[in-house]
């Protein structure tokens, strides 16, 4: 396993987003978001949330609390039943498919099961992140500019995956696959990274590598990172802010220090000791 | 020329960075696709079309299809006869399936790699691929020479293909039994039959039932065809009579609908079974 | 409920299933007038008969070119029916699969149409087409095409739904268009499996073509029927052996290809 040396510097100059940490802008504003599949039980209920540029925010809660649904409501992979989404100073709640495509290009997404096209090479999978900026034909015929390819290469290099670029994705380990997933999201040059349980299928070592990368991305590139996690300790170690979800409702929203026994019991209905020994 | 460190170990062709490499799998897949395309384009020129007047043939076909599907009606036979013949076809399919399944079970035990010596196993596999290579209709006709045209030839012919199919399916599910389980049983003094009855059968019984039903669905379709091609009776035979003897396309349509409804019901059931199977594994 | 109870219930259920099956078997045997004992004894006697009679003789060898010509016709029919059906089946499967359908209604229509095509008996197609197209290869082609199309749609849909839902979600999240998603997210992962189904269909169609040929007077099926009625068992032996050879060759190639591309 290769060890990761973390460098606290911007990934590379091709990125247009300059990390100006002084003046923080709101990148995402959710107002009264609700979701119900059957018009009876609410999966999400009246969620209000605002994310600042470069912030690292974790969402914790039991499985079934609505974490995944919330994440997918943000890029409208799941249509919220109610509420308003403002992303990058634009109301995207009810914009049409085409406009939404362009907005999705600015939000990277990372999945628990990596969601790679397993028979394609690492390089191809990473470049899929450029589809949002391309015409249908360009995408179908795999026409990428040299600049885009270099961008992909530099990201893969930072993620220590440069030697694997021509490998098929089904030949990679879980940790490597997730790094390809991250690279695909970064190649989008996103303003927001949505991570759905990124380490739930990984061993502790790979998990640390992935979390370190995500933290690094938010700090040095000014990309806002929103992570669903089920490990409270991981959330506390990495996050600037933690959101607690319980049965579709936001029950906690504060810095990690404030997440005490009581708060955890409120989110999970159980104490933290039981959670860790679980 | 200066190569930036970024481009070390990166394939560049004509000044463009390559995003994929040609693996054997990719090359073979492309070759196969091209070969199929070429064959499809050239193949039709080798065929002897005789004398067809395309325009009349096509308009005639459309007219026939309209008579068949939009104006179905019974003339020579009644709905009751059709029902009786469908149950006959189902019965033929059922017999072929159930007899085939019983024989397949024993053959599968001897062809599963973890239960039988490889010589026996390979022998059975070879025998099965021989059975599969001969079309069902030929088997039925060959059986008919000895046993006479009718139910026996039809059931036996279909049974052979059922055996070839189910033996493979059963053996594969037997082979999924973990080596450790067998070893543990053997260590506890169980003999070979004990292992089969107490470890192999309980674990694969639900799989076997599913496979048997899936095959039953296929056999229903085959039984319809055999009724027509090998005069084995059932709904297929009525279909043959209506079209080739009476030239009554309205009736062909009605019979087709009857056969179709049963087939779709069977398909829906087997689809459900398949989903259940997939959810389990 | 205790473990023992569950086991006992399972045992009862198995016994119940057994009884139902036995009753059904006897019922079916009664309907079809099938004598199980007599039937099973017919197998060894038929195999013995085959070994003694179904052998090509010296004269039949001269007929090899004639058989080859018909066999060639059958092969071409099987391949082009499979490939052309596959093209249409792919379109319908993309419309019909859960992961790629862009509209529930169209998805349903695509699946329904395919279901009709595969469940109308092949012989119904053959019998109707033969009335207008006569004893002609075109009859055989369309009969095979319709049933192959229906079957491949079903198999392709299963392939798409099993292999690619993850990649599809990721591509949609990057802002990819529908066609980008299908071409780059679905096809790469499903192509080998689909090719494998096409090969399977070619192999199956060789056998079905024999059946269709029998009914429509084309290809190898016609030839078999001809000598069957003449009771020329030597020729039947030759034809059977040659069919086996062709199926083996196709099976062998498709296994090789499958191994490499998977």
Automatic annotation (TrEMBL), chain A:
Keywords: ATP-binding, Cell membrane, Membrane, Nucleotide-binding, Phosphonate transport, Translocase, Transport
Any Gene Ontology CC annotation: membrane
InterPro entries, per database record: AAA+_ATPase, ABC_transporter-like_ATP-bd, ABC_transporter-like_CS, ABC_transpr_PhnC, MetN_ABC_transporter-like, P-loop_NTPase
Protein name as catalogued: Phosphonate ABC transporter ATP-binding protein
SMART domains linked to this entry: AAA (SM00382)
UniProt-listed SUPFAM superfamilies: P-loop containing nucleoside triphosphate hydrolases (SSF52540)
Spans traversing the lipid bilayer: none
Any GO MF annotation of the entry: ABC-type phosphonate transporter activity
Alphabetized PANTHER family for the sequence: AMINO ACID IMPORT ATP-BINDING PROTEIN, PHOSPHONATES IMPORT ATP-BINDING PROTEIN PHNC
Organism annotation: Lysinibacillus mangiferihumi
Automatic annotation (TrEMBL), chain B:
GO CC, alphabetical: plasma membrane
SUPFAM superfamilies registered for this protein in UniProt: MetI-like
Domain ABC transmembrane type-1: 86-273
Gene3D superfamilies xrefs: MetI-like
Membrane topology per record: Multi-pass membrane protein
Domain of life: Bacteria
Keywords (A to Z) from UniProt: Cell membrane, Membrane, Transmembrane, Transmembrane helix, Transport
Places the protein is found: Cell membrane
InterPro entries: MetI-like, MetI-like_sf
Signal peptide annotation: none
Transmembrane segments: 27-46, 90-112, 137-160, 220-242, 254-273
Primary subcellular site in the record, as a coarse category: membrane
Biological process annotations from GO: transmembrane transport
UniProt similarity note: Belongs to the binding-protein-dependent transport system permease family.
Full protein name: ABC transporter permease subunit
Automatic annotation (TrEMBL), chain C:
Membrane topology: Multi-pass membrane protein
Keyword Lipid metabolism: no
Keywords assigned by UniProt, alphabetized: Cell membrane, Membrane, Transmembrane, Transmembrane helix, Transport
Highest taxon above the source species: Bacteria
Gene Ontology CC terms, in alphabetical order: plasma membrane
Transmembrane annotation, as ranges: 12-31, 75-95, 116-134, 209-227, 233-252
UniProt keyword annotation of Membrane present: yes
PROSITE patterns, per database record: ABC_TM1
GO molecular function annotation: ABC-type phosphonate transporter activity
Similarity field: Belongs to the binding-protein-dependent transport system permease family.
Identification of the protein by name: Phosphonate ABC transporter, permease protein PhnE
Gene source species: Lysinibacillus mangiferihumi
